[in-house]
Amino acid sequence: MRIKHAAKPAAAPRTLLSAMLVAILLSSGGASVAQTASFSMDFSWSGTAACFDPQSPPFSLMGVPAGTKQLKFAMRDLDAPNFQHGGGTVPYQGQNQIARGAFSYRGPCPPQGQHRYQWTVEAQDVAGRTLATATVTKEFPPR
Predict the structure, then answer these.
(1) Which residue has the higher pLDDT, 15 or 109?
(2) What is the pLDDT of residues 9-49, one digit of tens each?
(3) What is the pTM of this model?
(4) Do residues 131 and 125 touch, judged by C-beta distance below 8 A?
């Protein structure tokens, strides 16, 4: 008795496979990568006391991604990375300015000279997933 085997399907052309791979990558997170590139922020040390001022500085936000429900801020001293300054989380309702004192943290206090401080903000959705991240670095005290 002979068993007939079904014909094997033809292999998809390489260009079709490449196009499918690109579509999968874009639908699984490529859009958030593009949003990250346009999400940015700035801030000012103006009004910040010389040592451990607990009031956060004012922030300006640009290109906040759609779906953002909260902003999670954190500051690092790049010259003393083991010192924990903390940060805070604020609700996002479409504003492009975050006022001075919107959250409490341990402000800058370089032991001597200037230190480089890096602020990172994560735009998060309602479930707390990060949609995009922005960072900015400035010295304190400012020159």
Answers:
(1) 109
(2) 444 444 433 343 333 333 334 333 333 559 999 999 999 99
(3) 0.74
(4) yes
What residue ranges in the chain does DSSP mark as E strands?
A: 40-43, 59-62, 70-77, 87-91, 97-98, 115-124, 130-140
- The CATH number given to whatever domain includes residue 54 is 3.90.280.10
Residue 2: inside a domain: no
Return the pLDDT at 106.
Answer: 96
Question: Two tokens at 103?
Answer: 């959250």
Residue that has been written with the tokens 């759609």 in this structure: 66
Coil, helix or strand at residue 28: helix
Whose tokens are 């003393």? That residue is 80
The CA R_g of the chain, rounded to the nearest whole Å, is 23
Count how many domains the chain has.
Answer: 1
- When the pLDDT of each residue in the chain is averaged and rounded to a whole number, the result is 82
CB 100 within 8 A of CB 55: yes
Residue 13 lies inside a defined structural domain of this protein: no
Query: Which residues, 6+ apart, have CB-to-CB distance to 1 below 8 Å?
Result: none
- Helix, coil or strand: residue 21: helix
